[in-house]
Design goal:
It is a single chain. By secondary structure, the protein is an alpha+beta fold. It has a domain at about 35-80 and about 95-125: Immunoglobulin-like. Helix content is about 15%, strand content about 30%. A hairpin with a 2-residue loop joins strand 3 (about 65-70) and strand 4 (about 70-75). The longest helix is centred in the N-terminal third of the chain and has 19 residues, at about 5-25. It is elongated.
């Protein structure tokens, strides 16, 4: 015997699932001031950390970086103009101003931070502090 759920319940479940998926797939914004949050990739090797930030349409003169208490803040201003004569059919590329704050590891050398903008990707390199090797002390 097959028991069928009323169509209304399945529709409600499908709607809720669609809403959850939409929230997950929609780019996140900082809610209080609606500033765009750019996507980042973070890498590490034995000597350094590297952060890559996607910044389409942003000129290097419009990017600022600051460091305070192991938090690096990346801010960018986009000068992309939207042609008012065009009707938007689909928008996936975000050209809004943005801000991103990232905690950096405690073993970061703050004096070694460098940044380059290459083809719309901001590459931030942070060297690691040199570890002090244990030293044997001879007793005389």
């Amino acid at each position: 015997m097959n028991i069928r759920q009323p169509k209304m319940i399945t529709d409600i479940l499908q709607n809720n699932l669609d809403n959850v998926l939409q929230e997950i797939l929609t780019p996140q914004k900082i809610q209080d001031n609606q500033i765009n949050v750019p996507e980042v990739n973070i890498y590490e090797d034995d000597n350094s950390y590297q952060i890559k930030v996607v910044m389409p349409g942003v000129d290097k003169k419009d990017i600022s970086l600051s460091l305070d208490n192991n938090i690096i803040e990346i801010f960018g201003k986009s000068n992309h103009e939207i042609n008012k004569k065009l009707t938007t059919l689909r928008t996936e590329i975000n050209f809004e101003d943005f801000k991103r704050r990232l905690a950096i590891p405690k073993d970061s050398d703050h004096q070694s931070i460098s940044a380059n903008l290459i083809n719309g990707i901001l590459e931030i390199t942070i060297k690691k502090k040199q570890k002090i090797k244990p030293k044997n002390i001879i007793v005389k």
